[in-house]
Design goal:
This protein is an alpha/beta fold. The chain has four domains: 148 residues, Orthogonal Bundle (N-utilizing Substance Protein B Homolog, Chain A); 61 residues, no CATH class; 55 residues, Alpha-Beta Plaits, CATH 3.30.70; 215 residues, Vaccinia Virus protein VP39 (Rossmann fold), CATH 3.40.50. Helix content is 42%, strand content 12%. It has 24 helices and 14 strands. The strands form three sheets. Strands 7, 8, 9, 10, 11, 12, 13 and 14 form an eight-stranded mixed β-sheet that branches. Strands 4-5-3-6 form a four-stranded antiparallel β-sheet. Helix 4 packs across helix 8. The longest helix has 16 residues. The chain is globular, with a radius of gyration of 25 Å. The chain starts with 64 loop residues before the first helix and ends with a strand. The protein binds S-adenosylmethionine (SAM). S-adenosylmethionine (SAM) binds next to helix 16 and helix 21. This is 16S rRNA methyltransferase. It comes from Pseudoscardovia radai. Pfam families: Methyltr_RsmB-F, NusB. InterPro entries: MeTrfase_RsmB-F_NOP2_cat (IPR049560), MeTrfase_RsmB-F_NOP2_dom (IPR001678), NusB-like_sf (IPR035926), NusB_RsmB_TIM44 (IPR006027), RCMT (IPR023267), RsmB/NOL1/NOP2-like_CS (IPR018314), SAM-dependent_MTases_sf (IPR029063). One of its GO terms (molecular function) is RNA binding.
Length: 556
């Protein structure tokens, strides 16, 4: 079999990063509103940078990035493998230039993230339902459509390489069909396809329209939309963040109120929120206070790395082009990899005003110990100690490892208990308690490309009894006057405000504090809800994971 000319492995797709297609390419790509922080390698055109120029070894199934990506996708989709574990493992040891590895990785992650939209486009181009296309051919077409519509691979390469892949992995019979469908796919740009496939969905099925356009399941669209609506942000908050970057979300006139439809606010912040969920996060480090400074980390970065200070946390440093585990500060646990949302959650607990003694802190759900280490490094400067608790043994070991750079005595103990027992075991013992509760993880979808397709609606309520039990236990373990932070990496209301409301209902001795005021004390520039109370962080506003932070005080 003769491999059609790629135009890619020989550098043909990467130089100008676009299609010379007479305006077909609409420049819409999958970039989201972002602060003008100049994050390198991100956003519009970023992926085009992966087009390989390196000398390429002879093309074989083992080193062809499209074949490798196809094989990984097949395992992820058929065998429930995790893309972020499988991809580096399968790519290691292959005779591939670095840029081809990056291309294969991008193909896998991007195709998984955008799978619902890609399927709709492929089905429309094939003029048959997705279910009528066999799984292997569908995967080839998803990859082909992703290359064409998101990576700017030239039409001839996207088509011919998809045909070649189909012949290699599906069989010679599939070549003609893939050729015909891919020709139709590449004839239009992304925005045009988004309009075509969403226009086929009835207008009052707003969640489905958004779900297809931004490639999320309907129930997640609804959960995120409900959270955004309840979060108390002025709709201008995200527009403000978007200014100076890519502009407001499509369909939203600047300054216009969101158009409410049957079940979601179409053309509003929810577009930006969902779009942002499709962007891989940057790597953020935390410089643990008292152990290392950001300047010291910056000084030790390799010349090839780029960095910028975090947006909100005084300890956050965003880095690019460096493997964090290779940094001495990270290896020595003086720094760690920690999203700014997580840093803000720990900082909010530490910053909440308190009368009386402030020496005993508890981290009730500590594994793997990111927040414990940040809390403990702050505690060390205030002569307080931290008790960590994590019932899963290997995660408790990770906590021990994460806090190993702290001075002796700062960590009082690392317990391995069910957090729900701690209230009874240590009533009124602690001044500050963190409950970073196990949750659905709906706030970190951008980190695991396939996660959104593996979760279901039941996940939103699966852990609510445990979450409530942990928060109630924390309210017993804290002393009168002390504070509890209830935190989740999920914005879904059943796991966030509804848990806090239920706990307060059963505990008249506790009250909600104003987390917005506390966080503004941490950094007055953080965009926060216009009303006092709990804080829900959002990717499209804060460029963080979507952490929920509630602060409660025990009054009696
Ligand atoms: C969201 S994670 C915590 C992340 C951690 N705080 C950090 O920043 O690295 C939730 C943790 O709660 C733990 N967990 C699960 N059930 C628990 C229980 N009954 N009591 C206490 N912790 C529990 C899980 O094992 C998991 O490590």
């Amino acid at each position: 079999m003769t491999e059609p000319h790629d135009g890619f492995a020989h550098g043909g797709a990467g130089n100008d990063g676009g299609k010379h297609d007479g305006g077909k390419h609409d420049g819409s790509r999958h970039s989201a509103p972002r602060r003008g922080s100049g994050r390198p390698g991100r956003g519009r055109g970023a992926h085009r940078g992966v087009a390989p120029h390196d000398a390429t070894p002879r093309d074989t199934p083992r080193n062809n990035p499209r074949v490798v990506a196809y094989d990984i996708l097949t395992d992820v989709l058929a065998k429930d493998a995790y893309a972020n574990l499988l991809t580096p493992r399968l790519l290691s040891g292959r005779d591939m230039p670095e840029r081809n590895r990056a291309f294969a990785t991008d193909l896998v992650y991007g195709t998984l993230r955008w799978m619902r939209l890609l399927d709709a486009i492929v089905a429309a181009a094939a003029k048959r339902p997705r279910e009528a296309i066999d799984g292997a051919t569908l995967t080839v077409l998803r990859l082909g459509a992703y290359q064409s519509l998101f990576l700017g691979v030239p039409d001839h390469a996207a088509v011919s390489q998809s045909v070649s892949l189909a012949r290699r992995r599906v069989g010679a019979h599939a070549g003609g069909f893939v050729n015909a469908v891919m020709h139709r796919v590449v004839a239009r740009g992304l925005k045009e396809w988004q309009s075509i496939v969403t226009s086929r969905i009835p207008r009052d099925h707003a969640a489905e329209r958004l779900g297809v356009r931004w490639s999320h399941p309907d129930w997640i669209v609804q959960a995120l939309d409900a959270s955004w609506r309840a979060s108390g942000y002025d709709d201008a908050a995200w527009r403000h963040v978007a200014e100076g970057a890519d502009g407001a979300a499509e369909g939203a006139a600047p300054g216009a109120a969101p158009r409410a439809t049957s079940d979601v606010a179409l053309g509003s912040a929810i577009d930006a929120l969902l779009e942002r969920d499709n962007e891989p996060p940057s790597v953020t480090l935390v410089a643990r206070p008292g152990l290392v400074t950001r300047d010291e980390i910056i000084a030790a970065l390799p010349h090839t790395a780029q960095h910028e200070l975090g947006l909100w946390s005084p300890y956050a440093l965003r880095v690019h082009g460096v493997t964090p585990e290779r940094l001495a500060a990270v290896r020595g646990h003086r720094a760690g990899v920690e999203d700014e949302g997580s840093q803000l959650a720990a900082l909010a607990l530490a910053a909440c005003p308190l009368d009386g003694p402030d020496t005993a802190w508890l981290d009730m759900c500590a594994g793997p110990g990111g927040k414990t280490a940040l809390l403990a490094s702050i505690a060390a400067g205030r002569h307080a100690t931290v008790t960590a608790n994590e019932p899963t043994h290997h995660r408790a070991d990770l906590v021990r490892e994460n806090v190993s750079a702290l001075p002796d005595g700062v960590i009082d103990d690392v317990l391995e208990l069910d957090g729900r027992m701690l209230g009874q075991m240590f009533p009124g013992r602690f001044d500050r308690v963190l409950v970073d509760a196990p949750c659905s993880g709906l706030g970190a979808l951008r980190r695991r490309p396939e996660a959104r397709w593996r979760k279901d609606e039941a996940d939103l309520t699966a852990l609510t009894q445990l979450q409530l039990g942990l928060l109630e236990s924390a309210l017993r373990a804290v002393r009168p006057g002390g504070v509890v932070a209830y935190v989740t990496c999920s914005p879904a209301l059943p796991e966030t405000t509804q848990i806090v409301d239920a706990a307060l209902e059963g505990h008249p001795e506790a009250e909600r504090c104003d987390a917005t005021a506390v966080l503004h004390g941490v950094n007055p520039g953080i965009p926060l809800p216009a009303r006092p109370g709990d804080v829900q962080l959002f990717g499209h506003v804060h460029d963080t994971d979507q952490m929920f932070i509630s602060l409660l005080r025990r009054t009696a």
